[in-house]
Amino acid sequence: MEKKEHIVHASADEIQAMREQGKTRSNWAAAEQMSNAEVERLANEDDGPLPEGWEATVDIGLPEPAQPVNIRIDASVLRWFKAGGPGYQTRINEVLRAFVRARRQASSPHHPTSAANRRPPRTTPRA
Length: 127
What we know:
about 130 residues, 2 domains, 5 helices
């Protein structure tokens, strides 16, 4: 499947209205006939298979509204994010969100690598 350069964002209601008005170029009949296996195969062709454990990264619900801040970031880091094109601030936020989530999971008493589940440091020298 060839990727398109022009991506349009629309809500489910907007898409439904476009379908009813015949204002969409998508072949919805063909899409509805596709099996889940075919959808997965096409997605893997486009973007590669999902990494193991990706389900743990899903956030259900609406995110908190973003807060405007001024932050100092190394120039090389900022260049790297900006090189990805528009949306670099969103990508920075996603990286920070993933870091916070990982730290929260690691500090959870039920997480196997949390401080609560680690052995205390050895206080006597080994023999």
